């Protein structure tokens, strides 16, 4: 995979990861609201006026455009596994930003993901 292709794939992955983090940050606005049909307007109002939610949705939209561009240049069997990097980014960022747990099992899983992504990326160079 060429450097420009990798940059495009990773840009899409990172935009998607940022979208998740923004949505998580905005999700607190829904804490304490019961999920009932009668609360639909209150829930919608909190979502529509929530800057992190709006930012997250914007990042998702841009990530889809970037991802389509990446898929036009990179084999899907190489690009798709790269999405796993998003899990790594989100796990580390959630630990740092939200105080979420990073257990030994999660860290081992992150290591395995990184090894797998490296192997897939390397296979694209030698194909």
Task: Describe the model.
The longest helix is centred in the first third of the chain and has 25 residues, at 3-27. The chain starts with a helix and ends with a helix. The chain has 127 residues and is mostly helical. It has helices spanning 3-27, 40-48, 51-71, 76-82, 84-98, 104-125. The protein is 78% helix and 0% strand. The protein has six helices and no strands. The protein has one domain. The chain is globular and about 55 Å long. The mean pLDDT is 90.
Task: Write a concise synopsis of the structure shown.
The radius of gyration is 17 Å and the shape is globular. 78% of the residues lie in helices and 0% in strands. The chain is built from 6 helices and no strands.
